[in-house]
């Protein structure tokens, strides 16, 4: 690296991103499924010229993501699709969403009946579908389980209203989180048992996200087999819409040690924040890997890493190193590209990390730096 970049920054490595996209494209080609990017998990749109060499569009969670998908992904190519799903749409957004979406997915029959005529008037070519809750999931964490107890996401069999059938061309489900293909098999079995009688009037079935396709050990061949069999059995198109699997292990969050304090143990204060910049480490929670480190006590020098905010619980975890850390040292958190900058906040007025791309020719492109105005402009 020739140029010094101020920390903190996220650095997405385009060659790693391409490697993920190659795997996803292999699934598309072998299975016949279409794969679209869930913007919710990864929305570094400067990489979209690369992403759209492979994926067939984006899925968005509402008006703003749909606008981004239309502007930066599916602008000039009629073969690239914008899908939109919201738990509930609002009167003031629905017309624009209808205009810019190729697919619109409703969460409940209520919402579908409320908006279907309006949507079709605005965009006669739009495909409408209903999100189903298959009521089967082995999602490892409640906070990420769309089929958990009292879930508001998707329509259960008991709430399915057959009058939706005259309006919809597809059914969606999203029931997985970071899971292998066995979990998909279980969900599909439940979904088919309840809903397969409706499949013959459908053009497509969307299997949602949460497929950990690009993680080592994922059974890609089995996924391909399942999709092929499903398509053959029911004569429908199949979509997958992963977010995490696109951004998985494609880059890092680079930060610096600002100070080291002692209170029962050694504590390093970093110029980043678990709360503001690595939110899933607190929400899930999980311990992000740090390059060159071991578990607490594994190597000679152990530190607790804390963020530069006033939240006591703004802690990344405990890490050990062969050599003592010094103020100014660089700390690199691994795998910090998905579900990080899409969720960031300016809590405490802390500066947002810059966004950097490591291009395939190994040059660094600082695509975005943030400052005081980004904090101020969201307040008034
Ligand atoms: C979050 C979400 C996705 C993407 O999930 P990943 O776990 O990032 O693959 C896809 N579809 C829907 C409806 C979602 O809510």
List keywords for this structure.
alpha/beta; 9-stranded parallel β-sheet; 8-stranded mixed β-sheet; binds pyridoxal-5'-phosphate
Describe the structure.
The protein is globular and about 65 Å long. The strands form 2 sheets. The protein has a 9-stranded parallel beta sheet with strand order 2-10-9-8-7-6-5-4-3. The protein is an alpha/beta fold. The longest helix is centred in the N-terminal third of the chain and has 18 residues, at 14-31. Helix 4 (91-100) packs across helix 5 (109-122). The model has no long low-confidence stretch (mean pLDDT 97). The chain is built from 11 helices and 17 strands. The structure holds pyridoxal-5'-phosphate. Pyridoxal-5'-phosphate is lined by residues 38, 40-41, 59, 85, 174, 177, 208-210, 241-245. Keywords: Decarboxylase, Lyase, Pyridoxal phosphate, Spermidine biosynthesis. It is an enzyme of class 4 (lyase). Residues 151-335 form the Orn/DAP/Arg decarboxylase 2 C-terminal domain. One of its GO terms (biological process) is spermidine biosynthetic process. Its EC number is 4.1.1.96.
């Amino acid at each position: 690296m020739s140029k010094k970049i101020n920390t903190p920054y996220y650095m997405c490595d385009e060659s790693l991103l391409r490697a993920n996209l190659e795997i996803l494209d292999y699934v598309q080609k072998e299975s016949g499924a279409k794969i679209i990017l869930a913007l919710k998990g990864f929305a570094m749109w400067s990489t979209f010229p690369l992403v759209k060499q492979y994926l067939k569009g984006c899925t968005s969670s509402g008006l703003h993501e749909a606008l981004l998908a239309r502007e930066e992904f599916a602008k000039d190519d009629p073969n690239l699709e914008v899908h939109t799903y919201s738990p509930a749409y609002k009167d003031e957004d629905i017309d624009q969403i209808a205009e810019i979406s190729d697919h619109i997915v409703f969460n409940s029959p209520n919402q579908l009946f409320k908006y279907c005529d309006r949507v079709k008037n605005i965009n006669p070519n739009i495909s409408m579908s209903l999100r189903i809750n298959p009521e089967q999931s082995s999602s490892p964490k409640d906070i990420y389980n769309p089929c958990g107890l009292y879930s508001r996401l998707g329509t259960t069999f008991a709430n399915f209203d057959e009058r939706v059938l005259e309006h919809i061309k597809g059914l969606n489900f999203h029931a997985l989180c970071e899971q292998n293909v066995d979990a998909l098999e279980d969900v599909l079995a439940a979904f088919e048992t309840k809903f397969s009688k409706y499949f013959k009037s459908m053009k497509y079935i969307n299997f949602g996200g949460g497929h950990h396709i690009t993680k080592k050990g994922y059974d890609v061949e089995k996924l391909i087999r399942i999709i092929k069999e499903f398509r053959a059995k029911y004569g429908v198109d199949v979509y997958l819409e992963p977010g995490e699997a696109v951004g998985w292990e494609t880059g890092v969050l680079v930060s610096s040690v600002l100070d080291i304090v002692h209170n029962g143990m050694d504590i390093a204060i970093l110029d980043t924040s678990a709360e503001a910049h690595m939110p899933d480490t607190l929400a899930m929670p999980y311990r992000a890997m740090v390059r060159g480190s071991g578990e607490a006590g594994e190597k000679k020098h152990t530190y607790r890493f804390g963020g530069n905010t006033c939240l006591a619980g703004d802690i990344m975890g405990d890490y050990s190193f062969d050599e003592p850390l010094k103020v100014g040292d660089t700390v690199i958190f691994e795998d910090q590209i998905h579900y990080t900058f899409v969720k960031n906040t300016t809590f405490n007025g802390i500066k947002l990390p810059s966004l950097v791309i490591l291009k395939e020719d190994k040059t660094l492109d600082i695509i975005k730096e943030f400052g005081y105005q980004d904090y101020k402009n969201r307040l008034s």
